[in-house]
Amino acid sequence: MLLTATNRRTIPLAAWPALVTLLLTGYGATAPQLWRDEMATWSAATRSPGELVHMVKNIDAVSGPYYLFMHYWIAVFGDSVLALRAPSILCMAGVAALVTIIGERLFGSRAGLLAGLLFAVIPSTSRYAQEARSYAFATFFAVLATLLLIRALDLPSWGRWAVYGAAVTATGLSHLIAVTVVTGHAVAALLAGRQSALRWGAATGAAAVVLLPFILLGNGQQDAQLGWVPTPSAGDLLTVAGYVFRSGMLAGITIGLAALGWAMHARWGAPLALSAVGPAVLLWTAGQVTQVWVPRYLTFTVPFLCLLAGAALAGVRLRGALAVVGAFLLISVPDQRVIRRSHDTQPLDYQAAAAIIREHQRPGDGIVYAPRGGWRFLDTAMDYHLRGDRPDDVLLKQSRAALGSLWASDCDRPAECLNGVHRVWVLAVGEQHDPLRPMERPKSDAIRATYTLTETWTVPGLTVALYTSPP
Q1: pLDDT of 34 higher than 90
Q2: Exposed/middle/buried for 385, CB within 10 Å: 0-12, 13-18, 19+?
Q3: Which of 67, 175, 204, 381 has the most C-beta neighbours closer than 10 Å?
């Protein structure tokens, strides 16, 4: 009944992969605690729109539209872990539906169903559905733009091309790297003829005009934001699929099936394949001259390989094809478990550290960070987990919002700022024998001069220490 003519269906075909995706990505969605990138999202999205504009002028401009969306989302649904990740979960379920619709339109209903189910069980689908960042949004709009391109090529009109251009713009506003999906779109437009190519050029050109300010701002902020990114090697390009899929084995099998699907469906095989491969090659090439090679930026390419893999599996009897999908799910189980433990390769247990401070703090306590700067966002994490129960941030000079930054600043005279504080909590990166070692020298000297280490606790990736001064 499911694969019969459209007018006989009581439930749309696309609903089934969307539902499977929703169930899989929703399972254990709150198990891994928010990691540092998600702390940046919370920090940005909980500012006023004016403060957010101030921030994106200085850093993370490319994520500004996503942060603005999350600002209003949090205002309605709150900022629990599930609330923060729910938009990404919904986006990935939407991607599964769109993949099914595209597959059905291009290759038949069976291909669409299988492509959508394959996407649902790929580990990276759960990984980026369960993260309060913009990768799921970029994936959704990249696939939506592809569907709208197909519609515009089938029945051309300036209205359809305008809607397509809007979807490309939304893709770039979600994540600029995802705009490289148009490499595959360009091939499809060229194959459709000169008029289609010209209209495609006009639509993408209009999108580029809208995205240009974000491109210019992002380029100016690149050193501060991506200064840690190394130059990729040839081996990185060969192994990137395993990272993007979050499973080397499933990446290899999917690519093999996708190659077969390409061979079976030459008309749309090349555009879909280039929508997946082209962005990876472009990002790797750009990475040779600038710091931009971050493989997770390519998450949006996964659905296109699933589409071609679904087209290949459509030639197999349905029961056998569904068994392949089931095998994908079984193979993914170890990677799915890892995803639901932590999002960070070097996890920091912010929640456990906050619980220690909450249990042992007293009125009048202060807290300092070793260090405050860097990408670990220790102060942001304590602001999130402790909320109104956080000890006084005694060294704070200017807040993150006031500076228009992801980082606050500390006072210039730490000894004066500590004056009158009898107990000081120190939260340090790493499991430290000396909790003050990661701290800047003037601050650590001020603490050593007045305070005595009373007690320490270690949790994964962090040290919590209590220092007291004589009464």
Answers
A1: yes
A2: buried
A3: 381
